[in-house]
Amino acid sequence: MSDIDTVINRKKCLSLTTFRKDGTSIETPIWYIWKNLKLYMFSE
Predict the structure, then answer these.
(1) Which pLDDT tens digit goes with each residue over 2-16?
(2) Greatest CA separation found in the chain?
(3) pLDDT band of 42, cuts 50, 70, 90
(4) Helix (H, G, I), strand (E, B), or coil: what is residue 36?
(5) CB 43 within 8 A of CB 29
(6) Which one of 12, 25, 36, 43 has the fewest CB atoms closer than 10 angstroms to its CB?
(7) How far apart are CA 35 and CA 39, in angstroms?
(8) For 35-39, which contacts have Cβ atoms below 8 Å and span 24 or more sequence positions?
(9) In the chain, at which residue ranges do the beta strands (DSSP E only) sit?
(10) What is the mean pLDDT of the chain?
(11) Which residues does 9 contact at the CB level (< 8 Å), separation at least 6?
(12) Long-range contacts: 12-19, Cβ < 8 Å, 24+?
């Protein structure tokens, strides 16, 4: 298992932060699956 596999497999979700034009941050929970060197992401 590579280092990236070890890091990614520790968690099941992450927080994606995007910004509006006025600078307000918006945090969105993103769930992901790491499989066959591909990262599949989804949110509600």
Answers:
(1) 677 777 777 788 889
(2) 42
(3) confident
(4) coil
(5) yes
(6) 36
(7) 7
(8) 39/8
(9) 13-19, 25-35, 38-42
(10) 86
(11) 1, 34
(12) 16/43
